[in-house]
Amino acid sequence: MRISFANDYSEGCLPEILENLSKTNLEQIGGYGLDSYSKSAIGKIEQLLGAEPNQVDIHFTVGGTQANLIVISHVLKPYSGVLSAPAGHIATHESAAIEATGHKVITLDADPYTGKLDALTLAAFLSEYWANPEPEHSPFPGMIYFSNATEYGTHYSAQEIRAIRDVADEYDMPIFMDGARLGTALVAEPEKLSFDQLIDLVDVFTIGGTKNGALSGEAIVFTNRKQNYADRFRWTLKQRGGMLAKGRLLGIQFDTLFTDNLYFRAAQHANQMADILRTGLKQRNVKFWTETKTNQLFILITPELKRLLLQDFIFLDWLIPSKQQLSELGLEKSDQNYHVVRLVTSWATQKEAIEQFLNRWDDFANL
Ligand SMILES: Cc1ncc(COP(=O)(O)O)c(C=O)c1O
């Protein structure tokens, strides 16, 4: 069987979750997210955020695309769009799920290597939009979206988000941070952004379980920092099919993830495994598309080496760099062709799998 570095949701779930699902299996529990396990999970998340009672609103749903479309369609007015980097998940990998709710995803320029939205570009866009005497001919910029970690495995510091926040406040806009991979972003450099800072920095964010050891599930957190965007959210959650009758499944999983720091320990493991892989690849002079500290690595590889490695491992093609990009990456003199592929480690990755990958790399690279 090939070893997979394709993503961080190839395995089932953390054993603690399976154990708690099994232990509680015959308990008769109320539905739709109002059960005691969901309430307990909410309490634990509130405590970690340092929230006052009833300060934040927390809900659970099954998947990331679902969380994004439900949040965005709930918060936006019918005539509004959402601003995103071109590589933002809602702009690239959600089959126009947001547009299907009637809201345009408006993409702004962003650094193609880091994939990050930056405050200056955002400010320039908004200033130009509002300088137009007839702005109503294009969608109202109603929300700012970015994911943390990004599609390129990079992550934001508090300072970077603060700069986006300042622009958002100037234009009275909410920020939605998609945290499908929030765990790996926060533990990448905890001193640069901590969980409790989110309460002041963004209006709504998700805490991804699916990619961090849950069977599935995302928590949606409205911080209510200025405006109550969560008002009547349960109606939208229900209408859009995101409210699970067996809400216990999500409650038990998040209650487990937020017990004994499991959520962050799982993410730390994924990042540590990525560190080992990154170090091994750097020792082999492999070029990286961008420098990341999370569990996603994007590397340049020749098509031939890729073909050989794919015999024993699974990983995904990401993009084919242009000539100009190859030159920016210092490969202008190479007579080789390169592809960018993504390697992902997870809460379940074993060190031995990485050793095998690096060993096979050596076997093939030296042919
Ligand atoms: C940042 C981000 N948001 C949302 C999603 C969508 O999640 P799902 O596949 O559970 O719908 C993904 C999935 O890869 C993601 O990486």
Sum this structure up briefly.
With 367 residues, the protein is an alpha/beta fold. It folds into two domains: 3-8 and 265-365, Aspartate Aminotransferase, domain 1 (Alpha-Beta Complex); 15-262, Type I PLP-dependent aspartate aminotransferase-like (Major domain) (Aspartate Aminotransferase, domain 2, 3-Layer(aba) Sandwich), CATH 3.40.640.10.
Describe the 3D structure.
There is one protein chain. The protein is an alpha/beta fold and 367 residues long. 39% of the residues lie in helices and 15% in strands. It has helices at residues 15-23, 36-49, 64-75, 89-92, 119-131, 158-170, 182-188, 198-201, 233-239, 248-257, 262-283, 303-309, 323-328, 351-365; strands spanning 3-4, 57-61, 80-84, 105-107, 140-147, 175-178, 204-208, 218-222, 296-301, 313-314, 316-319, 339-344. A 7-stranded mixed sheet has the order 2-8-7-6-5-3-4, with helices on both faces. A 3-stranded antiparallel sheet has the order 9-12-11. It has a two-stranded parallel ribbon with strand order 1-10. Helix 4 (89-92) links the parallel strand 3 and strand 4 (105-107). The site of pyridoxal-5'-phosphate (PLP) has 9 residues, from helix 3.
